[in-house]
Structure formats: C-alpha cells, structure tokens
Amino acid sequence: MQTDNPPFETHWVRWLLGLWLLLACVLLAYRWPNINFLILADTDDNLRLAQVKAWLAGQPWYDLRQYKLDPPYGADIHWSRLPDMPIAGIISLFSPIIGALWAEKLALALAPLLPFGLALWGLGLAARRMVHPIAWLFAAALLFSAPSAMGMFLPMRIDHHGWQLAFLALALAGLADPDARRGGLTTGVATALSVSVGLEMLPYLALCGGLIGLRWVVDPGQALRLRGYGAALGLGTALGYLVFASYANRVPRCDALTPVWLSTFILAGALMLGLSFLRGPRWSIRLVTGAIAGLALAAFFALSWPDCLARPEGISDALYRTWFVNIMEVRPLYAHDIKTALPAVALPCVGVVGALWACLSARGAARWVWAQFIILGLLSTAMLFWQFRAAPAAQVIAVTGAVALAWHVLPRLARAPALAVRIFGVAAASLLISGMAGYIALSLVPNKVTVSPVRTKARQASAACTTLSALRPIGRVPAATMFTFVDLSPRLIAMTPHRAIAGPYHRNGDAILDVFRAFRGTPETARQIMARHGAEYVLICPNMAEGGNHRRSAPKGFLAQLEKGQVPAWLTPVALPAKSPFKLWKITPDR
What we know:
Strands 1-2-4-3 form a four-stranded mixed sheet, with no helix packed on it. By secondary structure, the protein is an all-alpha fold. It has 28 helices and four strands. Helices cover 64% and strands 2% of the residues. The chain has two domains: 6-23 and 113-427, no CATH class; 454-587, Rossmann fold, CATH 3.40.50. The termini are far apart.
C-alpha cells in the first residue's frame, strides 16, 4: 500500500506524540467527573493513593507495609514503588503551586496516561516492524478501542496494571525487532521492569523468553538476540530487586520479585547467555542443549521453591473458599454475562486470525516472527477461560495481529468499484476487526436479563458510600480504628484519617478471615474479634455487595442483625447526617 503522507513514516514519533496528547485530552475530558470528585472506583487505586501518601509523609522507600490496615502491625502489601514514583512526583511538584488537593487530583489524572503513551509507542513499533511503516496508526486506533486494556490507562486508574501492559507492549516490540541484539535487550529489559512491578504478566513474558530460545534453535543467527535477552533479563531483574524490592519481599515469597524469582530469572538469563555462545551447525544440537537448560531451570525452581508450585498467592484453603473465589476478575470468561465477555474476547480472537493470516502470507524469517504472535495470542486467549483478568493483556497482544488483518482487508475494500462496498464495507470491517461490532450489536439488543433488586441496591450503595460527601462526616470523627467491610477499607484509609482492619489483599488473609468471621458470627464472637484488633467503631454500608455476601452466608449473623436494627448493648450509635448511606457505632470496651 502506497502512502501519500511521508511524515507519518519519517517523523512517526512526533505524530505519535501528538496523537497521544490528543487522546489524553479526550480521556481527561471523559473522566473529568471522576477527577473533580476524586472518584477512585477500584480498591487497588485507593490503596495505591494511601501508599503514596504514606511515602510522602515519611514512610521509608523499602517499607511498603500499610500501617492504616490491621494496626499496629500493618498489612503486608506485595507491591512496588515504581508506579508510585510519577504520582508522588506530580503531587510534590504541584502542591506548592495549586494546593495539595488539586495536586493530588492532577497526579491521579495524569499518571495513568504515562504508561498509555509507552504502550502506544511499543505497539506502534511492533506494527511498523511487522506490517508497514505507517501501520502504527492502526495500532493506536485498535488499542484505543480495546475496552479491557484501555480501562487500565484511564485517568484515576493509578494501579500498576497499566505499567505492566506498557512493558508487555515493549516486550512485543522487541520480538518484532529485526535487529537481533536490540530486540533481545528490549524484551529482556521490558521483562525485568514488568516483574519489578508485579508478576501478573509472567506467563506471557516467560513465553516471550521461550520463543526467543526457539528462534535461536531454528536460526543460529539469532544468537545475538538470545544473548541480549539473557544479559538484560539477569542484570535487569537483579537491579529491579535492589531498587524496588520491599523489606517484606526480601524473604522467599511466590507472589512478587523476591529471592524466589530473582534466583530463577538470574539463572534463566545465565543459561540463555551461555547457550548463545554455543557453536554448531546442527539445529538438533541446539534443541537438545536448549531443552537441557530448560529442564535444569525447571528442576532448580521445583527443588528450591516447592511451595511456589501451588497457588502463588500462598493463601489458605479457608481464604480461597471464603473470599478469593468470589472475586469477579478471577472467575473465568464463561462465568460472566455475554455483554461483559464478548467485548473482552473479540479482539484477542481477531488478533489470532490476523497473525495466522500474516504468517501464511509471509516468507522467510517474517513467518517465524508471526508464529510467535500466534502462539502468544493463543495463550492469552486461553488464559481468559481461566481468569477474566487476563483480558487486558490478551487485547494488547492481539493488536499487532489485528493490525495485519486490517492492513490486508481495508485497502481492498476501499478500492472496490461499488461505492456502497467502499463505505459500508470499510466501516463494517473496521468494527469487526476492532471487536466493536459485537459490542455495538449487544447494546442494540434489548436486555432480557433482569437485574435483581439486590444487585441494583448493591451497586447504588457501593457508589454512595465511596463518595467524598458521604465520607466527609466519617472523617470528622476523631481518628480511630474502624471495623468495616474489606472492600470499603482502602477507600476509608485513603480519604479519611481512620484505620481499618483488612483490605482485599491476599497477604492480609488472616485479617480478612477475621472480618468475615465477625460479620457472619454471633455478636459475642464479633466483639471478641474486634477487641483483639483494637477496633473502636463499627462502620457498615447497608446493601453493599460484600454485606450481601455476608448475609447470604449467615442470615442470622452479626451483620444481618445490625441491618435489621438488632444492635447489641455494647454498641452506641453515632449520629450521622440524615442522608448518610452509612451506619456507625462506637464500641464500648470490655470492663
């Protein structure tokens, strides 16, 4: 396809920067109500803000315990400081100029747009290298239309997932790089940065490393790619551990960059570095040595860290049954309604088809490169049928294949003799390739699924109880330890001076179980648990989703009694505004 816009080729980075600024303005306008009213809809975003505030207030760099949860010991949080840095930087820079509140709003609005720009660049690089020099425009359009992926880049979405998706996009750009050494270094550095933030992208990044090794088996000319990747992986993860690993992550744990994964990545990098120097013309020798190295790495991991062969979160069976399985994002794709599932899976399926088409059309080395994207696409799509939270990564991986399909199909339709085909054909194909066709079709179909009144009340209660106006009267109460819902605690500690018992974080498992046992047990059991945690108040949000789970599990439990007005004598009501969605009681201590 010929282009009449050479600047899109020769100065594509400038154009990409301009497009990113334009899209950023669109997203800021779209999310202005959330920015203005400081709405952080996700619990992780609220805890991230609480973590940044604690750091700015003097908490040490390597201390990531959240001391406003489960005081006085605090909750062990397995996160990284890397995503905290731009948020804290913007707050520190602008607080003297526009005040602390607006500096905070500005930071929460702008910080997610930084990884969005990085993801645009990574996917644009991959599209240019794999499809055409101006195909980066298609990549940008497809990413912007990917609902699950874009949800991680929206203003106020300050959790770490946006950064992980951006590093995944860079890893893909490295796989697509025709310069073997640079490509290997890029994928290795991106992998090291990603695991320094968290392990959510590990399946895809590990497969990227395996695919680099497989390319070397097929083509000895890929030794430089293998060498660059191995060196960057080992050194990068070591540096990431030194800079970002918290005090809590310096002991063997399976859920973050701890000595478990540090030793594994360093050994993997060393093995790949060594393999890259292997001389020999026969692919079979490279295959055997590569397989031996892979088995050695697997044996090291299994023998050194056998506990990590089970659930990486390390949660108990009780916590898994009581709490973990009820998290919506960890349920498989088919457990969600079609209006949620179809927009998530459409683009990944299109991406696999596009990568397959491009692979069959390619020749020579390009065919092997496309084969990598087919394998990655199949894995990421399959992961959706394990946990729905794989959707953002699956959509990012799918973009390059979908770009190839668009590049093949749209120009042909645009050159069709019939005007109707040129107009409606291009429009229909664009909607199908982007995955938006199914979403639009479903939105036009009358919703025959009746939303239960209980679910409607739960959504309304969750929205009402997280607003600043609702929390402001709670914040006026002298700072205390509130015994409240697990899902409400991050918002409470981020927006008020109060402390809470547990947030929805797996290392906080014992405290989570205590909250559940208190609300589902007898009033006397609840009182004992609250006393053990030093709770001074009981705060509930009637009809909130978590409360509904407690009531269904224990219809005669402590929470169910509170919501019916059956309040024990050791709780004294605290007056709140008439329209407050909360109920608050002060606990009378045992005498």
